[in-house]
Amino acid sequence: MEAHEATRGLESKREGIPAWLLGVIPLLLIALAIGAFAALGGPGLGERTGAPIEELAVESTVLTPGVIELTVRNDGPDAVTIAQAMVNDAFVQFSGAERPIGRLGSETVRLQQPWVEGEGYEVALLTSTGGTITHEIPAAAETPIGDLGFFGLMALLGLYVGVIPIALGMLWLPFIRRVPPGWLRVVMALTVGLLAFLAIDATLEGLELAGEGSQAFGGAALVLIGAVIAFLALTGVGHWLEDRRARAKVSGATGGHLAMLIAIGIGMHNLGEGLAIGTSYATGALALGAFLVVGFALHNTTEGLAIVAPIANLKPSPKRLALLGLIAGAPAILGAWIGAAAFNTSLAAFLFGAGAGAIVQVIVQLFPTLRDSAGRALHPAAVGGLLAGIALMFTTGLLVSV
Amino acid sequence: VALHNGVHGRTPEALAADAPHGKAHDEGGHAGFRTGGKVDHRANGFDPHEILRDFDWGKTSKMADGRVLREWELYAADHEIEVAPGVKFAAWTYNQRIPGPTLRAREGERLRITFINRSSHPHTIHFHGIHPAEMDGVPGLGAGEIPPGGNTAYEFDALPAGLHLYHCHVRPLAEHIAKGLYGAFIIDPKEGRPEADELVMVLNGFDTNFDRANELYAANTIPFAYMDKPIKVERDKLVRIYLVNILEYDLINSFHLHGNLFDYFPTGTSLKPSELTDTVMLCQGQRGILEWRFAHLGRFMFHAHQSEFTELGWQGFFEVCEPGTDVRLNCELP
C-alpha cells in the first residue's frame, strides 16, 4: 500500500514536467552523445583501412566551340582531387577544380578540346591517387544556348508531343458519350491499361536515369520516394476535395474530380517525357525528325482519351476541357525547357518516380468504375480493355524511343 | 561538307582565358598537363634531366688475375613518387629512382652487383647479357627470389658489349616491372665509342588506376619533362642516345626524331649502324643506340610515333645551341 502511494507520488511529480520537455530531453542527450563522439574522433574505431574511395558523377556536359565543360559531384565518402584531365587519350589544358572536392561537393571543369561535331569523346579525369573518372560523350554537338529561339523551339516541341495530341485524343468525348454503359466500362478498362503501361514505363525510365547519375542523393530510391510522395499527395488532395464537396453539399460529380486527377497524373508523366526529350535534344542524342513527332503524337493521343473517359456522362464546359488538356499536356513544354537548360539526373529520376506514383493513384481511383452489375472489376470485357490499352501503348511506344 | 562548320579549333581567346600563365599559349597547342602544376623532382629524389647524363660506373678494384672487378650496390625500396603534377604513385624502385641507376662497365670486366631487398615484397634483379644460369635473377635458380630484408650478389663477366637492361623477374611480372623495377645496363666495347654527348632514355609508362593500361607515358618516368624544359645539345657535336624500352602493357613503343636522321645500332652490339632512319620501333626489352649530329639550331621534337603515347606524355624537345665562350652553351637564338 505504501509502495503504491510512493509510486503515485512520483507520477504526480512527473506530471509537473511539461510534456514538450520530456520530448526534447532525449533529443538533447542524443545531440550531446553525437557531439562527444565526434569531438573524441570516434573512440575505439580507429582509421578506416584501405585506399580512399573516389567517386565523381558527371551531372552535366556543356559543349561550346573548343571547350568541353563538365560539372561533377562527389558521390563518395572521401574528398577527390582532380590533378589532370585527358580527352581521347591525350592530356588537355583545363581550368576549375583547383581544390579537393569534398563529399557532395560540386565543381565545373573546362577542358580545352578542339572537338568535332558528331564524333565521340571520352573524357578521363586523373585524380591525385592516379584513379580515373571517365565520361563518355557519344556524339559531340554544341549545347544549345538558352536564348529565346531555343526556348521557342522547345515550346514548339512540347506543343507537338504533349498539348496537341492530348487535345486530339479528347475529341473522342462525343463518341464516348454515345457508347452504351457496358462499352464505356471497356473504354475505362482501356484507359486503366494505358495508364498502367505509362506507370511501368515511367518507373523503368526513372530507374535507368537514377543508375546513370549521382548516387549521392539516393539514386534509385529517389524514383520510389517520388512515387510515394506523388501518390500520397494526390490521395490527400483527392480526399480534401471530397470533404470540401461534402461540406458544400454538392452531390455526385466525382467524374469531373477523377478527370482532374487523371490530367494531373498524366501531366506529371509528360513533365518527365518533356525532360527526356529536352535533355536528348540538348546533348545531341535526339534527331528531331517528323517520325519522332508523329510517334509521340500517336502515343500521347491515347492520353487524351484517358482524360475524357470518366466525364463521358457529364457536360463539361469547353473551358474546363481546355484546362484539363493543358494540365495534362503543357508540362511537356516545361519539361523540355528544364531538360534542355538545367538537366540533373537526380531531379529527373525523382520526377519520373513522381509521375509513376501519380498515375498509380489515378488507377486506384479509376478501378471502381470498371465494376459491372455483378460488382466484378476484372470481368472479361474489362480484362480485354486493359490488355488492349497496354498493347496500344506498347505498339505506339515502339515508334518513339528517346 | 560539314567540316568547315563542324571543326571547333582552340581559339586564341579561349586559350588566353584559360591559361593565364601563358605556358600553353607558348607551346602553341601541344598536349600537356594543366598549367601551373609541376612535379616535385626533389621530393621524388630524382630528376629526369639528371638521369639523362647520369652513368653509374660503380667502384673498381683489381682482382688477382689483373682483371677489373666492378661493384655496385642496388637496393629495392617501396617509394611513393609524383608521376604527374599532383598525381601520386606507389612505386617499387631500385635505389629510390625510376629508372634505376644506369650501370656502366667495360667489356670483359668482372661485375658484382650486391642486391639488398628493403621493399616489403620479394624481388630479384634479372640482367640481360651473357651469364651463368644461377646469376640470372629468376625465381628457383641461384639465389632465386630475395625476400624482404634479404640480400644476394649477382656476379658475372661484362658480356657482350652493347646496350642491355636489368629488371625484376618476380611474379606477377607485369606488376613488378610496371611499378618501376628496371634500369639500363651499358657495356662499352673494348675499343670504346667515339666521343659524344651521351644520353640515356628509358621508355616507360605508369598504370595509375591498375586497369592494366597506362595512363602516363614518358622517357625517364616523368611525362612532358623534356617539353617543359628542353634537352640542351650542341650543334654539329655527336649526340648518342642509349635507348631502352621497358614499357609494360603496350605491345610496342617507338622513338621518332624531328628534323634529323640518326644511325641506329640495334642492341649496340655492332659498331656498324644497321640503318639511317628517323623512327625506330621497339618491343618490351628491345633497345638500341642512336647517333647523329644536329645541323641546325633551334628546337627539335622527339617522341613516340604512336600519337596516343605522345599525347599522354612521351614527347620532348632538343634545344640545339652554339658553343658559348665558356663551357656553357649559348641558346639565345637570333
Average of the residue pLDDT scores of chain A: 82
**Could you tell me how far the N terminus lies from the C terminus of chain B, measured between alpha carbons in angstroms?**
43 Å
Query: Could you tell me the radius of gyration of chain B in angstroms?
Result: 21 Å
Of all chain pairs, the largest interface belongs to: A-B, 32 and 38 residues
Oligomer: heterodimer
Q: Helical content of chain B, roughly?
A: 10-25%
Structural class of chain B: mainly beta
> Can you count the helices of chain A?
12
Distance between termini of chain A?
A: 78 Å
Shape of chain A: globular
Strand content of chain A: 5-15%
| Arithmetic mean of pLDDT of chain B | 91
The largest sheet of chain A has its strands arranged as 1-2-5-4
Give an overview in words.
The complex is a heterodimer of chains A (402) and B (334). Helices cover 59% and strands 11% of the residues of chain A. The radius of gyration of chain A is 27 Å and the shape is globular. In chain A, strands 1-2-5-4 form a four-stranded antiparallel sheet, with no helix packed on it. A three-stranded antiparallel sheet of chain A has the order 3-6-7, with no helix packed on it. Chain A has helices at 2-16, 19-39, 148-169, 173-178, 181-212, 220-247, 254-282, 290-308, 318-329, 331-341, 345-366, 380-398, and strands at residues 56-64, 67-74, 82-87, 94-95, 106-112, 121-127, 132-137. The model of chain A has no long low-confidence stretch (mean pLDDT 82). Chain B has 334 residues and is mainly beta. In chain B, strand 16 and strand 17 form a beta hairpin. The radius of gyration of chain B is 21 Å and the shape is globular. The model of chain B is unreliable at 1-28 (pLDDT under 50). The chains are: A alpha+beta (402), B mainly beta (334). The A-B interface holds A 65-67, 81, 83-86, 89-95, 110, 112-118, 124, 126-132, 142 and B 2, 5-11, 14-15, 18-19, 24, 31-35, 37, 83-89, 206, 208-209, 211, 215, 223-224, 307-308, 311-313.
